[in-house]
Inverse folding.
């Protein structure tokens, strides 16, 4: 029988077949022998079968280009026939065999990559140049390789990143878009679409890939598929069709979604593409298909009744604000209160400034725009009297969550909804609706699937039902964390629903030891014939590392997701942090800070185990607790950061569980994002109240932070300065001087004086702008693997561009203008550089302020003199004055309207695409910098009388300060009152004459009059009271000396 042939004999027959029919028969024998048999697959790999399969796939007909792309006019229709020519059947079997080998697990990725399987497979995904069955099989092979890469123990991120790098290039992105745009209703095409959506959701994690897919029209294609489900559910409003005809949108209403297409996968791919981006989220909402099937039409009669009822309630004093513009789709939802008490609607905790940034990590993952800021709401849809109404997609997603029967669909709908909510695309009153209709659903899903997770816990391979349940359990905490991250009210609802204790339980459960962490080697009757696994990753005939079992990978993903939910719940409220600590999860959090975790052990038991010398050590790759990837390390850092906002936690559980040294070790990690996350934790561990400050100083944290303060990465540089600011506050003078010496006075001056990021951007752009020679132009024309940034001058909205010149309407033009504004704001490199410079300068000024923040008067005066001697007295005051003036960057460069400065320091709205203006710009003083300057002067004025006199002598500086008494920022006005109180403080009788001179100078400059104006007219009671105290001090009416602020510590 043919099946009994040895691999060398069968391989010889395959290679030397006389025709395609004979080769097909031998390949089928090979396929029957290896499917489901890992040992047989290993044997065939050892005999070099993969290299021959790739060789078969490379033998394409010459009529097809290597990329599978040509002119669109030459594209052939998608083949859906089952009859294939013999040469295509050979290639189909080769693709099926590669997919089968990929199903063998992570160990087969090494030989597959060594033979170059991925580039060859990608040449078969173009639906216009390949039969549908070949496209489907190639997508299956890519999906199987992606799944195998996710099970790699230590290199899963690198393996998936390599696949993403190969797939997400323009020529293959166009193929993905063509598959999603296919109008065929056949089951083969629907499976292709599902596989494409799955690949996007699993591989497209980096913003650059997300932007490429969105720009190429993939996001619009996915939005069209989402709209087809709205049509299939019969939820298109029939009375809007006439309006759509007039607006030219009726033609884009898609056909109902055919059977076989997965709504959950489409939603998941959309949620991945729009994550953390207002522009991409806007692309979803402005998709023509979404705008056509989900219009914002209102039901006139019922809407007028709502307005009349609202007016009656408003006249009775029973409500506030304005009525909610409910679309017709809102009536599919259960009735909920249309308004909520003011104290419940708080996007940000009152104790924290609404800057949109975490206090310790202003540049999460090194990107200043990683989080949405409340100041950007003016660019967004929804949330104001003059803004566009909320998109009907939002109530439709809520309705889908409540009416659907597929739990996976519910979670993915909530994920898309979380991006819309975080991006500010929902109305202000939607928060209460989310708390009633969305958060409880997610919490119930979390409870239900947590109870079912005990099934199949010891299985090496899992069935599809269990895998789906695991996906839901892994994604739900992360989705819930994103949804509630910036809302105290939603965090309260989540905690009341029991999700806090569930998140803690999931984290502890993720550290249950796995009995079989890696797949066992298959049994063989001849073990001496088995070849050892090679370490050479370029070997084409040897397997790689075995990876991990699905259960172990599931626990690691659940570990990351639960840490994210714990972080969101611990962001604002102290009572939530206390409850989290009471769940005894700190040992698990501490182990999550290590790449090779061990059993989470309480501090007392851990100390006893170490004394007995019975600490279990597991060999690399065989730990029952898995290997923590960088995503878990970062999530654990953020969890420690939020828990460390509590002084009680700093002094007890965090210190007892010894988190300081693991964090310090992560400061030296090779991954830049891990360094930034660890540096953000160090900010809180180095505060005055932390018992971990001294051990970290002894370990050498000062040298590491000073080194990172010189980093090229703006996020790392900012967090390092922030940590140093906390470190020098209320510490001894020797430590303060050591920090300044290691950082370098010259470098500190450069940080607070220069616009480092802006100048670096200017230098980079000037270096890129050089005349192109003929050779350069040829090189650009030959480039096919990436977008040419320098030539991307004009951005085109693919949703309109692909529909042709006849597709135009007023709504689409308005949407196009909004998208261009969102895109410019998101990709404005000048604005990002300016924000990074301002944040770094603010922390640098606060660092100098904390250097002189010493309670004892003689010591403080000595430190002030030391700062003046190191930095230069006149130079320092000149820098402070420059922060209060309007600044012109590159004044001799030409000015353009698209780059003219605004008071906020951002660029205008005339630019488009990714253009970077390097022309002259006007920069206005920023409130945070002004406050930092004033508080630094306040601390100088807290010194001896000659220091106060020194400040009074800076006449130009005082005149600049006088112009900020009408500043709209309340912190500026309040800090000015502090400064003036300190300037008129009298140190005994010997300072009385000096005080009188200072009062005279201040009155001459008009400060008393301005204080009296604040006392009478300021809208803030606190400012009025402080202005009253400062004015009384100047008039000599104060009975006691001022309380000098010695520094502010932000937790």
């Amino acid at each position: 029988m043919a099946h009994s042939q040895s691999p060398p004999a069968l391989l010889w027959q395959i290679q030397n077949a006389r025709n395609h029919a004979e080769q097909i028969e031998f390949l089928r024998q090979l396929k029957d022998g290896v499917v489901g048999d890992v040992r047989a697959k290993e044997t065939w790999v050892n005999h070099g079968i993969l290299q021959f399969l790739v060789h078969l796939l490379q033998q394409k007909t010459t009529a097809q280009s290597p990329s599978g792309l040509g002119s669109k006019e030459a594209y052939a229709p998608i083949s859906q026939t089952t009859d294939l020519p013999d040469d295509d059947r050979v290639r189909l079997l080769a693709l099926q065999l590669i997919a089968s080998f990929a199903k063998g697990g992570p160990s087969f990725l090494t030989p597959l990559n060594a033979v170059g399987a991925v580039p060859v497979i990608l040449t078969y995904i173009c639906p216009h140049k390949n039969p549908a069955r070949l496209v489907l099989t190639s997508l299956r092979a890519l999906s199987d390789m992606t799944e195998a890469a996710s099970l790699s123990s230590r290199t899963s991120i690198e393996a998936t990143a390599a696949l993403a790098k190969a797939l997400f290039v323009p020529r293959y992105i166009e193929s993905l878009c063509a598959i999603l745009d296919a109008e065929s209703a056949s089951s083969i095409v629907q499976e292709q679409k599902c596989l494409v959506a799955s690949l996007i959701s699993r591989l497209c994690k980096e913003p650059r890939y997300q932007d490429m897919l969105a720009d190429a029209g993939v996001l619009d294609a996915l939005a069209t598929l989402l709209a087809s489900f709205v049509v299939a559910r019969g939820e298109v409003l029939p009375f809007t069709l006439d309006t759509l005809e007039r607006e030219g949108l009726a033609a884009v209403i898609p056909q109902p979604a055919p059977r076989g297409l997965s709504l959950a996968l489409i939603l998941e791919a959309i949620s991945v593409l729009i994550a953390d981006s207002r522009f991409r989220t806007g692309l979803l909402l402005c998709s023509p298909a979404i705008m056509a099937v989900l219009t914002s039409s209102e039901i006139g009669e019922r809407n007028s009744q709502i307005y009349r009822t609202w007016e009656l309630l408003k006249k009775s004093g029973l409500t506030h604000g304005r009525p909610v513009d409910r679309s017709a789709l809102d009536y599919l939802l259960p009735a909920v209160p249309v308004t909520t008490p003011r104290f419940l609607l708080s996007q940000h905790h009152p104790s924290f400034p609404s800057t949109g940034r975490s206090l310790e990590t202003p540049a999460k993952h090194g990107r200043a725009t990683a989080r949405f800021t409340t100041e950007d709401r003016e660019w967004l849809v929804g949330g104001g009297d003059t803004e566009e109404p909320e998109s009907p997609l939002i109530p439709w997603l809520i309705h889908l969550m409540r009416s659907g029967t597929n739990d996976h669909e519910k979670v993915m709908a909530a994920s898309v909804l979380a991006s819309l909510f975080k991006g500010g695309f929902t109305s202000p009153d939607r928060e209460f609706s989310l708390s009633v209709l969305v958060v409880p659903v997610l919490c119930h899903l979390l409870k239900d699937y947590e109870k079912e997770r005990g099934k199949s816990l010891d299985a090496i391979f899992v069935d599809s039902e269990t895998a789906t349940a695991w996906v839901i359990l892994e994604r739900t905490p992360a989705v819930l964390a994103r949804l509630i991250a910036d809302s105290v009210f939603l965090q309260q609802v989540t905690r009341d629903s029991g999700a806090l204790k569930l998140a803690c339980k999931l984290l502890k459960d993720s550290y249950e030891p796995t009995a079989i962490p890696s797949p066992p080697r298959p049994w063989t009757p001849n073990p001496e014939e088995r070849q050892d696994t090679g370490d050479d990753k370029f070997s084409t005939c040897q397997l790689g590392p075995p990876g991990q079992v699905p259960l172990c990978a599931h626990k690691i993903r659940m570990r990351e997701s639960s840490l994210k939910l714990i972080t969101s719940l611990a962001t604002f409220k102290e009572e939530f942090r206390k409850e989290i600590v009471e769940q005894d999860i700190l040992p698990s959090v501490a182990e999550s800070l290590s790449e090779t975790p061990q059993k989470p052990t309480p501090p007392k038991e851990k100390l006893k185990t170490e004394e007995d010398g019975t600490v279990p050590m597991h060999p690399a790759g065989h730990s029952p607790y898995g290997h923590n990837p960088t995503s878990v390390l970062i999530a654990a850092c953020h969890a420690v950061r939020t828990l460390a906002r509590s002084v009680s936690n700093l002094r007890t559980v965090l210190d007892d569980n010894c988190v300081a040294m693991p964090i310090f070790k992560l400061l030296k990690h090779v991954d830049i994002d891990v360094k930034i996350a660890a540096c953000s934790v160090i900010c809180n561990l180095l505060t005055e109240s932390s018992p971990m400050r001294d051990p970290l100083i002894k370990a050498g944290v000062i040298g590491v932070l000073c080194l990172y303060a010189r980093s090229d990465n703006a996020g790392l540089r900012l967090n390092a300065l922030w940590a140093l600011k906390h470190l020098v506050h209320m510490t001894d003078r020797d430590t303060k001087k050591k920090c300044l010496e290691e950082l370098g006075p010259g470098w500190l001056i450069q940080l607070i004086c220069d616009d480092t990021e802006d100048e670096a951007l200017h230098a980079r752009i000037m270096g890129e702008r050089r005349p192109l020679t003929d050779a350069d132009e040829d090189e650009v024309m030959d480039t096919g693997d990436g977008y040419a940034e320098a030539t991307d001058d004009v951005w085109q909205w693919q949703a309109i561009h692909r529909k042709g010149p006849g597709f135009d309407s007023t709504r689409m033009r308005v949407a196009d203008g909004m998208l261009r504004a969102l895109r410019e704001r998101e990709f404005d490199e000048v604005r990002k550089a300016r924000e990074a410079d301002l944040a770094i300068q603010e922390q640098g000024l606060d660092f100098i302020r904390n250097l002189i923040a010493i309670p004892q008067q003689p010591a403080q005066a000595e430190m002030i003199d030391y700062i003046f001697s190191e930095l230069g007295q006149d130079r320092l005051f000149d820098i402070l004055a420059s922060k209060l003036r309007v600044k012109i960057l590159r004044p001799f460069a030409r000015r353009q309207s698209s780059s003219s400065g605004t008071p906020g320091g951002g660029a205008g709205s005339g630019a488009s695409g990714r253009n970077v203006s390097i022309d002259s710009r006007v920069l206005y003083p920023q409130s945070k910098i002004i406050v930092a300057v004033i508080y630094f002067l306040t601390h100088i004025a807290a010194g001896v009388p000659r220091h106060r006199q020194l400040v009074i002598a800076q006449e130009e500086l005082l005149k600049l300060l006088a112009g900020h008494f009408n500043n709209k920022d309340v912190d500026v006005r309040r800090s000015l009152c502090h400064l003036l109180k300190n300037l008129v403080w009298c140190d005994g009788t010997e300072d009385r004459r000096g005080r009188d001179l200072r009062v005279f100078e201040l009155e001459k400059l008009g400060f008393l009059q301005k204080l009296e104006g604040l006392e009478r007219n300021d809208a803030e009671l606190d400012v009025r009271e402080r202005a009253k105290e400062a004015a009384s001090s100047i008039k000599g009416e104060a009975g006691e000396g001022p309380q000098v602020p010695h520094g502010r510590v932000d937790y």
Remarks:
- DSSP finds 53 helices and two strands in the chain.
